[in-house]
């Protein structure tokens, strides 16, 4: 995505009460900063690019943007009700649209979670034991259960980089980025059916089908959870190959059966590996969908 | 995988005897062939005599769709006025009417001494993309919520034509919907509707076999118990992918499901020839073929207790006995194929089919020409169906 992150001065100007803003990273449509608020609390401040500045888009397009932003804010605010320990909490900045130097952004903040994301741990060649993998699955399934059954929301972007291992016993893993960037880009801001939400390597196969938006449900999140657990356990992404061309990757997601988890981690139990393999099936109807049973399976 | 008797006309002592001998583990009654007063007594009788037997009652609500046909033959089903009536599809487009049908049926069915409640539904006759499909899905959606105060599992009926099953895209979408219901049933009672119970190709078609396997597999993965009605020999294959039970009876209209069972058809009225079910050939042979072929290819004999029913050469066995040979053979097949991982069970089916091909080769090279329903036409679709299923299920 071709856009420039808002610079620190611009942000400070817009949020004078926020101190010590520190740029962290850019990914997809999003730029992430660490910031300190008046009560000494640190939060992750996030800006999501939505469009060029108003003067550079047509009046019709700008109308669409305004109405879509309202919808996004409504949806994001639903999440304020959640007190699920495994889902990141929204922060002090009210979600709103802000014009920065090079475009229009949605800005919001989340609690700042200390810990390491799973992507980093994978690159450090960390090999988690089964108890930890079950704990990770448990946290993710509880989060998916709440998002779907309470708010009818699908995360759509579960991947190692969006999960923090905290080292805390009451919330060992926390799921970040409630797909907000994709809520935004699923609205009339872009009606392009060719734009696929989510990160290429972490797309569920059904998200590559035409009109998938009409029938997608939480089983896509179960799939990406299993994919994340698989990669975290093995340090191997089943569809990322040396040839990393997007079309080839998408073809593999649609057609290639991943090697069984057991074949790469024979120290893990058959039951656990079987469950993760089953959640990675291409057709949603043959992924186990009973969240209560899945949660209890991981607890056991 | 359990095998149940698919009840029908002319029960006599067959079900009792089948349970007694241990060939079947339960029964699914159908009201078309048993009066409203008698059903109470019959369920109690089985419960008292065979404590381990599972008892179910298929309300056959779907039969009401043919109510106005001139040649309709609803039998004793019309005695069940508690819930059975003419089915008018347009009325079932209203959810409250569906809830009423479920409630009325449950009010009657739950009085019976049964192990689980089979819910009413209609048959999806054409495709999953149809008005009937929407109605059927709504029946399934409310199957559990309308049953209150009863501590028994409830099975949603999913009755679908073999033609609809051949559209895998639509089947997947339908399955996607029914596997994520807010208040799901405990299980499913699957019926595959055919256009004719006498044509093997209606069921022995690669796409139909694959879809039937896939239904069992998907529903089992999602935690549902699956009872397959009228599944006959196919029961054994369905068990190897997670099916809980299959069922079959003594006439062809209890071995293959068709709405035609409610129509009076001019068949000429001749009784069918008695047939021996050969596990090795995965098929039923005319009794005279059995006697002739076994001299040259003895492997077609099952070596089971019930073989003795067909011991007498030249003469047809007692007609009321034939079903025991069928039940024992299918039960034995189920035991051989069950209890393994899906891929192992299906590999065993594959091996069985390949063996059957060899046996047919030997039969034909001995100079025999099998009759139409005894030949090998079912084998290729089974093999192909398993391959299609394995591809879908990524096994």
Interface with most residues: A-B, 17 and 15 residues
Approximately how much beta-strand content do the residues of chain B carry? 5-15%
Number of strands of chain B: 11
Radius of gyration of CA atoms of chain A, rounded to a whole number: 19 Å
Oligomer: heterodimer
Polypeptide structure, described:
The complex is a heterodimer of chains A (300) and B (395). Chain A has helices at 8-14, 59-78, 118-123, 130-151, 180-185, 219-234, 246-255, 261-264, 270-279, 291-299; strands at residues 19-27, 30-36, 42-51, 96-100, 103-111, 116-117, 163-165, 173-175. With 300 residues, chain A is of the alpha+beta class. In chain A, the strands form 2 sheets. A 5-stranded antiparallel β-sheet of chain A has the order 1-2-3-5-4, sandwiched between helices. A 3-stranded antiparallel β-sheet of chain A has the order 6-7-8. Chain A is globular. In chain A, 38% of the residues are buried. The model of chain B has no long low-confidence stretch (mean pLDDT 94). In chain B, strands 1, 2, 3, 4, 5, 6, 7, 8 and 9 form a 9-stranded parallel β-sheet that branches. In chain B, strands 10-11 form a two-stranded antiparallel sheet. In chain B, helix 4 links the parallel strand 5 and strand 6. Chain A binds chain B through residues 215, 217-219, 257, 278, 281-290, 293, and chain B through 172-173, 175-176, 179-180, 214, 217-218, 221-223, 392-394.
């Amino acid at each position: 995505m071709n856009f420039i992150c808002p610079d620190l001065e611009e942000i400070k100007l817009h949020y004078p009460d926020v101190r010590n803003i520190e740029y962290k990273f850019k990914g997809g449509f999003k730029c992430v900063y660490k910031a300190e608020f008046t009560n000494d609390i640190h939060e992750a401040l996030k800006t999501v690019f939505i469009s060029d500045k108003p003067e550079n888009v047509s009046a019709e397009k700008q109308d669409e943007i305004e109405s879509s932003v309202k919808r996004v804010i409504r949806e994001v605010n639903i999440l304020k009700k959640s007190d699920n320990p495994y889902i990141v909490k929204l922060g002090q900045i009210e979600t709103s649209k802000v014009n920065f130097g090079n475009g229009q952004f949605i800005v919001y903040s989340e609690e700042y979670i200390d810990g390491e994301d799973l992507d980093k741990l994978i690159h450090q060649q960390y090999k988690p034991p089964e108890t930890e993998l079950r704990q990770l699955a448990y946290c993710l399934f509880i989060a998916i259960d709440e998002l779907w059954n309470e708010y009818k929301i699908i995360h759509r972007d579960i991947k190692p980089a969006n999960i923090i291992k905290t080292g805390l016993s009451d919330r060992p893993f926390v799921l970040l980025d409630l797909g907000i960037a994709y809520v935004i880009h699923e609205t009339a801001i872009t009606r392009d059916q060719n734009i696929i939400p989510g990160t290429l390597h972490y797309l569920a196969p059904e998200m590559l089908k035409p009109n998938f938006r009409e029938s997608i449900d939480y089983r896509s999140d179960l799939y990406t959870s299993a994919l994340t657990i698989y990669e975290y356990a093995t340090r191997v992404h089943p569809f990322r190959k040396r040839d990393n061309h997007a079309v080839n990757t998408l073809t593999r997601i649609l057609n290639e059966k991943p090697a069984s988890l057991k074949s790469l981690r024979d120290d893990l139990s058959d039951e656990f590996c079987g469950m993760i393999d089953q959640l990675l099936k291409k057709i949603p109807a043959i992924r186990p969908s009973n969240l209560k049973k899945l949660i209890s399976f991981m607890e056991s | 995988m359990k095998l149940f008797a698919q009840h029908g006309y002319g029960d006599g002592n067959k079900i009792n005897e089948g349970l007694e001998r241990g060939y079947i583990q339960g029964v699914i009654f159908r009201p078309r062939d048993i009066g409203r007063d008698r059903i109470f007594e019959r369920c109690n009788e089985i419960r008292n005599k065979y404590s381990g037997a599972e008892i179910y009652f298929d309300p056959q609500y779907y039969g009401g769709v043919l109510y106005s046909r001139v040649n309709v033959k609803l039998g004793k089903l019309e005695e069940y006025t508690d819930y059975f009536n003419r089915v008018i599809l347009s009325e079932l487009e209203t959810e409250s009417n569906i809830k009423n049908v479920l409630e009325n049926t449950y009010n009657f069915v739950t009085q019976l001494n049964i192990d689980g409640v089979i819910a009413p539904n209609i048959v999806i006759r054409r495709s999953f993309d149809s008005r009937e499909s929407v109605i059927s899905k709504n029946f399934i959606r409310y199957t559990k919520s309308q049953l209150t105060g009863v501590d028994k599992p409830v099975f949603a009926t999913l009755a679908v034509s073999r033609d609809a099953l051949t559209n895998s895209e639509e089947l997947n979408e339908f399955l996607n919907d029914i596997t994520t219901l807010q208040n799901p049933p405990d299980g499913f009672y699957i019926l595959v509707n055919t256009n004719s119970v006498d044509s093997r190709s209606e069921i022995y078609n690669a796409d139909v076999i694959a879809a039937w396997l896939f239904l069992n597999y998907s529903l089992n993965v999602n935690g549902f118990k699956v009872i397959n009605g009228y599944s006959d020999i196919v029961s054994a294959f369905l068990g190897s992918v997670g099916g809980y039970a299959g069922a079959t009876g003594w006439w062809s209209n209890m071995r293959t499901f068709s709405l035609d069972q409610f129509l009076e058809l001019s068949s000429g009225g001749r009784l069918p020839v008695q047939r021996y079910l050969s596990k090795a050939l995965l098929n039923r042979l005319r009794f005279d073929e059995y006697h002739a072929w076994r001299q040259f290819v003895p492997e077609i004999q099952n070596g089971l207790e019930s073989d003795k029913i067909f011991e007498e050469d030249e003469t047809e066995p007692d007609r009321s006995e034939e079903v025991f040979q069928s039940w024992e053979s299918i039960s034995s097949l189920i035991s051989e194929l069950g209890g393994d991982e899906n891929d192992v069970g299906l590999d065993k089916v594959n091996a069985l089919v390949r063996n059957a091909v060899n046996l047919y080769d030997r039969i034909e090279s001995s100079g025999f020409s099998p009759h139409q329903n005894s030949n090998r036409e079912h084998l290729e679709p089974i093999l192909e169906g398993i391959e299609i299923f394995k591809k879908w299920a990524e096994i």
